[in-house]
Amino acid sequence: MSFDNPFDAKTKLGHGGCSCGHHASDAEHQKAIEADNRAVARDEDLRLSRIVESAVVRALFPEDATRRAFLRAVGTGTAAAAIAQFLPLGAITDAFAQGATPEKKDLKVGFIPITCATPIIMAHPMGFYSKQGLNVEVVKTAGWAVIRDKTLNKEYDAAHMLSPMPLAITLGVGSNPIPYTMPAVENINGQAITLSIKHKDKRNPKDWKGFKFAVPFDYSMHNYLLRYYLAEAGLDPDKDVQIRSVPPPEMVANLRADNIDGFLAPDPVNQRAVFDGAGFIHILSKEIWDGHPCCAFAASKEFVTQMPNTYSALLKAIIEATAFASKQENRKQIAEAIAPANYLNQPPTVVEQVLTGTYADGLGNIVKASNRIDFDPFPWESFAIWIMTQMKRWGQLKGDVDYKAIAKQVFLATDATKLMKEAGLTPPDSTTKKFKVMGKEFDPEKPEEYIASFAIKRV
Amino acid sequence: MTKALISAEGLAKRFPQGQGQPPLTVFENLWFEIAHGEFACIIGHSGCGKSTILNALAGLDTASEGNIIVGGKHVEGPSLDRAVIFQGNALMPWLSALGNVELAVSSRHKDWSRAEVREHAMKYLDLVHLNGSELKKPSQLSGGMKQRVGIARALSIEPQILLMDEPFSALDALTRGSLQDEVLSVRAKTKQTIFMITHDVDEAMLLADKILLMTNGPKARIAEIVENTLPKERSRTDLHKHPNYYPLRNHMIEFLVTRSRELAGGAGAKPGELRHPPVVRPTIGGTTHVETARSSQPAESTAATDLQAGRVSAA
Amino acid sequence: MAQPSASSLNIKATIVSVLILATFLFAWHLGTAGVATTQKLDPEYAKLMGATATQGKSAMPGPIEVGAKIWEHLKDPFYDRGTNDKGLGIQLAYSIGRVALGYLLAVAVAIPLGFLIGMSPLMSRALDPFIQVMKPISPLAWMPLALYTIKDSGMSAIFVIFICSLWPMLINTAFGVASVRKEWLNVAKTLELGPARTALSVILPAAAPTIFTGMRISIGIAWLVIVAAEMLVGGTGIGYFVWNEWNNLSITNVITAILAIGLVGMALDQLMARLQKSVSYAD
Prior knowledge:
The complex is a heterotrimer of chains A (459), B (315) and C (283). Chain A has 459 residues and is of the alpha/beta class. Chain A contains 20 helices and 16 strands. In chain A, the strands form five sheets. Chain A has a five-stranded mixed beta sheet with strand order 2-1-3-11-4, with helices on both faces. A five-stranded mixed beta sheet of chain A has the order 8-7-9-6-10, with helices on both faces. In chain A, α10 links the parallel β7 (212-215) and β8 (242-245). Chain B is 34% helix and 24% strand. In chain B, β4 and β5 (73-74) form a beta hairpin. In chain B, α2 (97-108) packs across α3. The radius of gyration of chain B is 20 Å and the shape is globular. Chains in contact: A-C, B-C.
């Protein structure tokens, strides 16, 4: 909802649901503005002028209420014309379009071939990078450690990472502490628990005692979500089952070879297991926590500070791509763009099933879950706090943790707010929010109480 | 006789033994001289240090004591003026016969063009009758041919002195004979000064002007210097027909069989004899001792040397 | 009975080789033919599934499939469809380029250093403990260290090639130089060749067959290691190609790459064998 029309009287220039009261539901509200948004995504010039207009309107009417009243009174068209009379909106728009020249035009961005990286990847074939005047090469990379090293080596200017990684690295968990920044989340949801086809009758996690599971990395949402899910079912993830770190490409082969019973993995691995008849999708990760972050766009602190213009151009491209990807109707087109060997190297139907949310579950059913994967750039600091509570819960992190300070340092929510504003997007008012994981509310103000509330933990 | 080209003065070779033990002396008090154009052979049993002497002359080894003076200069190390023909052929197997000789020629004449080097090398291969086989690798040549290449290589650098370490010992009798002839004919052409080690009394009689007889080691020394009493112009085929042949041969055989052992360990050495080993001339008329020139005396005239050399004292 | 001539033996060996290949291909074909137990599936659902799931097709490709894939690669070995999708020929060229660079660097270090060790008993003893410790280290174990210090993955891969090619060459050079016959060195001395010319025109050709044996061992190891290194580092190269196709579970492409790796490895070995033959000498 970050791509709103500032001249829409019904829209608050802030993050929020349908608060205009004109629609019965959020979905309906969404529908009403969708057509307009489509035009935004298609038409760069219109989008740019809207960025400027938004800024101007906001400057003229800092109070939401006043602005809405004004617009309702005179109508959108009149308002724009009226403002244009005393403010050369066109000139400002042009100036903004040119922007500050990037210090460096040829960039390399690393990615792991999973659908989480969709915004980073699609920005290449679909021209989001070139729109920002950047010549970005997206480079497929073998693993998380390599992607980290290549970013440190400055071979990559920025990279796709698992959102807990910048936290773990900054905290010095599992590596030397290195200043990392995570200015944007790439995707929310988009993971799943896949089980071997031979377990198709064991749908209750209580029956999973003795199972061997794979997750892509120790410091991944996958690990924390799987542990959370198992613990909620009364299984101790360290004692009742085995959880191993396995690179995603090896997961399907291992599942077929009967080395593992299942995995909580990023897509397209889950859908690929179904496609090859090796497994079935037990649940999507959104059923554990709807709206959970997964992967992130990360850059070294050095890149951010030394090449601010390049960095903001790159981030704008990513945020725009994320916005484009967040729209259901674009998903099929994206799937076609990112499936070839140059990017994900997967059968297009697999990628399409992941992105559209209409998929075969491996048990003979076609499931429709439109938000199987979604894309939202905002790095909520409360996400970081939740991740740290889980790191602490499972003994990866010991001692006292200044949750808020670290969350602020790594998840650059304030930066994102600023950049989203610059890019004409509407960031949320707050950098933290409450959310529910398997029905249980998480209050970012009370992380220690949250940890203490769990029966199964390593603290 | 001209002034000595090579003089060895009191050479000794000692190897340190274990702690507390005296060093092992292979040879000591070794004195000899070789004149310009002279062909000297050294004969002795294995272990008397012949090869060490030759290597010291070549500059490849050093004596523990004493000096070697060649052409008025101390020998400090190897030199292109002293070519060595090794016991094994010591050819570079990756080079052709010509390549081996060319390596030597180009090291002598660094400023020569390839063509000049080749031409010069071919001349010496011709000299040892190897034209036609110059492009063959050593592995394609017979033992005798290999040794000929070695000779051509040594001669091609036109050294002052040729040092030969049992050059023909590894060859069969027939090949050895033909190579000995080769050496004779080459020497007739080049008047080369040659120092050669041999085990073979007949070879020494055929080739050498004088033969140094060494006692057995340890503490080996030169017991005697035998002058070749056979005529200068000699050939393998009629050598044994000369009346001096058997007296000369018997003298040396007798030395090698009995006296070399009796005189071993420095036994029977008279003080004056160490510096000036007795010179003997075994002939049909009996073996005569020749009184040699004293090298310690001031430089004598050639005439005086000849006169003294000719003076015969009773045996 | 007459002794079979060399040529008739060759013909027979070829026939047996072809038979073995044919038997292997046939067994492979049978083994992967798959049991055609097509389940009755909802056609909408079947569209979303792969052939392995719907037609009971074996996950392992058959020889015909692989042959077709090889033909496809042979037809267009140098296509370039972006950073992460390049033809097999280009990938092989990247790998060969890396191997060549790392290997030549190793040659440049190993041969002079081997000379030093071979000629100096002091250096030989002084360096021996280091060589003994470094030699058995798996080349890939150097990778994290290389990535951390060199800070360039391409250079790290080249470094890994360098380090794995170094030891056989170094040890063989030192051994070859140390075992040059004394008499050849004596010849060099009496010819007053001087150290540089002695090294170049006597020691080098004398030790060349031993050095080239080391170089041949090294190129084999380097080619083995580059595939693993590229699988680790990614980006380009035949190792990356294998990894990328594995990622796509495309066994057909993996098998094609394996064949290509084998053929290039054989070609490199044959090349070194030729060179080795050209410097060897009969004694």
